């Protein structure tokens, strides 16, 4: 005797979590849903779920009902820790955690579950949080080139095939930028005013010209005083 499919005598009030607790291929015998999918021949109707191979090819979300998600969250809640006190505002978080890392995960309903954009990593950090002196800051900005804008360094990393490799690449670049910015080469002490992006009085020709004028003025002043005293 051939037994009836399970869905025909399933209780409508039964917990769906017990029937479909984890992701798996579609099974028509215990899915109480009138699902149809497939190619229509000769103006007929869409094939039903019975023995439908097309429904088994694609992934489904029958394991992600609201009740599933609620029970799973309750299960993993005991492994979570409360949010640290004193870090309720974004400004405070950026003060203690200046490095911001952004990644993206993609959920795809198809035969391939990979997305090439999921390997991309975006790193952002404020230059003011690196504790650099004026010379190191200027050198850091020049080394960063177009990746630095408005006190923010942004590194978009996507060259490596995996997210972990792009993350490690970004940490290496950030470490190299900070290390090279703090270095002092012998030839850097010989820079002139043309090598500086901003106007600095100590390196300007105006200071030299003013010093010459002041020397001449002091000489004339003392010469005038000496002449008066001698008369």
Description of the structure:
With 231 residues, this protein is of the alpha+beta class. It folds into three domains: 6-79, no CATH class; 90-190, Double Stranded RNA Binding Domain; 193-230. 36% of the residues lie in helices and 7% in strands. The chain contains seven helices and four strands, in the order ααααββαββαα. The protein has helices at residues 16-19, 53-57, 66-76, 90-96, 134-144, 163-182, 205-230; strands at residues 100-102, 121-126, 148-149, 152-157. Strands 1-2-4-3 form a four-stranded antiparallel β-sheet. Helix 5 packs across helix 6 (163-182). The longest helix has 26 residues, at 205-230. The model has no long low-confidence stretch (mean pLDDT 86).
Distance between the termini: 142 Å
- Highest-level CATH class of the largest domain: Alpha Beta
Count of the domains: 3
Q: Unreliable runs, pLDDT <50, ≥5 residues?
A: none
Largest sheet geometry = 4 strands, antiparallel
Strand order of the largest sheet: 1-2-4-3
Output mean pLDDT. Answer: 86
What gross morphology would you assign? Answer: rod-shaped
Q: Radius of gyration from the CA trace?
A: 36 Å
Number of separate strands: 4
GO biological process, one term: mitochondrial translation
Domain Small ribosomal subunit protein mS35 mitochondrial conserved: 115-184
Protein name: Small ribosomal subunit protein mS35 mitochondrial conserved domain-containing protein
InterPro entries: Ribosomal_mS35_mit, Ribosomal_mS35_mt
């Amino acid at each position: 005797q051939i037994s009836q499919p399970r869905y025909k005598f399933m209780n409508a009030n039964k917990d769906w979590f017990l029937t479909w607790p984890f992701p798996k291929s579609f099974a028509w015998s215990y899915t109480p849903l009138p699902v149809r999918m497939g190619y229509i021949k000769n103006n007929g109707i869409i094939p039903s779920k019975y023995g439908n191979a097309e429904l088994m090819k694609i992934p489904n979300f029958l394991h992600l009902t609201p009740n599933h998600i609620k029970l799973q969250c309750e299960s993993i809640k005991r492994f979570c820790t409360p949010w640290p006190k004193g870090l309720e505002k974004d400004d405070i978080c950026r003060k203690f955690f200046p490095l911001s890392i952004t990644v993206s995960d993609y959920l795809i309903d198809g035969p391939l579950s990979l997305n090439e954009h999921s390997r991309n990593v975006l790193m952002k950090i404020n230059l003011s949080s690196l504790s650099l002196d004026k010379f190191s800051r200027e050198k850091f900005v020049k080394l960063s080139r177009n990746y630095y804008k408005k006190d923010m360094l942004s590194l978009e990393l996507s060259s490596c095939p995996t997210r972990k490799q792009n993350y490690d690449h970004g940490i290496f670049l950030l470490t190299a930028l900070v290390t090279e910015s703090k270095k002092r080469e012998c030839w850097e002490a010989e820079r002139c005013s043309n090598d500086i992006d901003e106007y600095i009085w100590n390196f300007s020709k105006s200071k030299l010209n003013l010093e010459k004028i002041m020397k001449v003025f002091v000489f004339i002043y003392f010469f005038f005083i000496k002449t008066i005293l001698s008369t």
